[in-house]
């Protein structure tokens, strides 16, 4: 999992974290609160379960998360097409509560189909 803090001057810090997403988010939110910092937090998810965990965390408490990044949630197929079903499902789960960003397997040939998934 990757967390990215971004302050109002667009300076960012990226942190790779191993372990439960909710624990990482809780630590980030607590740190920002204790230090009276206002930063946008972007979290990179790699599975639908991680997306669900972020959504559950955010439904239980106030969080600084503003964007959920959806990493490698598209699968290139042997016929040169692209399976975007996991990406679409993630976008449906998020349901506009956070900005979304797709990453991984994005090329000029795939960007249109990925964009049609509803990812913002």
Provide structural commentary.
Belongs to the NadC/ModD family. InterPro entries: Aldolase_TIM, NadC/ModD, Nicotinate_pribotase-like_C, Quinolinate_PRibosylTrfase_C. This protein is α/β, with parallel strands linked by helices and 120 residues long. The protein has a single domain (2-115), classed as Alpha-Beta Barrel (TIM Barrel), CATH 3.20.20. The protein has 4 helices and 7 strands; from the N terminus they run E-E-H-E-H-E-E-E-H-E-H. The chain has a 5-stranded mixed beta sheet with strand order 2-1-3-4-7, with helices on one face. It has a two-stranded antiparallel sheet with strand order 5-6. Strand 3 (40-45), helix 2 and strand 4 (65-71) form a beta-alpha-beta unit. Helix 2 packs parallel to helix 3. The longest helix is centred in the N-terminal third of the chain and has 14 residues, at 21-34. The radius of gyration is 15 Å and the shape is elongated. The model has no long low-confidence stretch (mean pLDDT 85).
Secondary structure elements and pairings:
Elements: E1 2-6, E2 12-16, H1 21-34, E3 40-45, H2 48-60, E4 65-71, E5 75-76, E6 82-83, H3 85-94, E7 99-103, H4 111-115
Parallel strand pairs: 3-4, 4-7
Antiparallel strand pairs: 1-2, 1-3, 5-6
Helix pairs in contact: 1-2, 2-3
Keywords: Glycosyltransferase, Transferase
Pfam families: QRPTase_C
InterPro entries: Aldolase_TIM, NadC/ModD, Nicotinate_pribotase-like_C, Quinolinate_PRibosylTrfase_C
């Amino acid at each position: 999992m990757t967390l990215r803090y971004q302050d109002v001057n667009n300076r960012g810090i990226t942190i790779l974290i191993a372990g439960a997403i909710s624990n990482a988010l809780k630590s980030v939110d607590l740190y920002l609160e204790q230090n009276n910092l206002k930063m946008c937090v972007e979290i990179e998810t790699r599975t639908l379960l991680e997306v669900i965990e972020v959504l559950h965390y955010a439904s239980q408490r106030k969080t600084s998360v503003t964007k959920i990044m959806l990493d490698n949630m598209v699968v290139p197929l042997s016929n040169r097409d692209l399976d975007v079903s996991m990406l679409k499902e993630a976008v449906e789960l998020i349901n506009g509560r956070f900005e979304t960003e797709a990453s991984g397997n994005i090329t000029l040939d795939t960007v249109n189909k990925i964009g049609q998934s509803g990812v913002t």
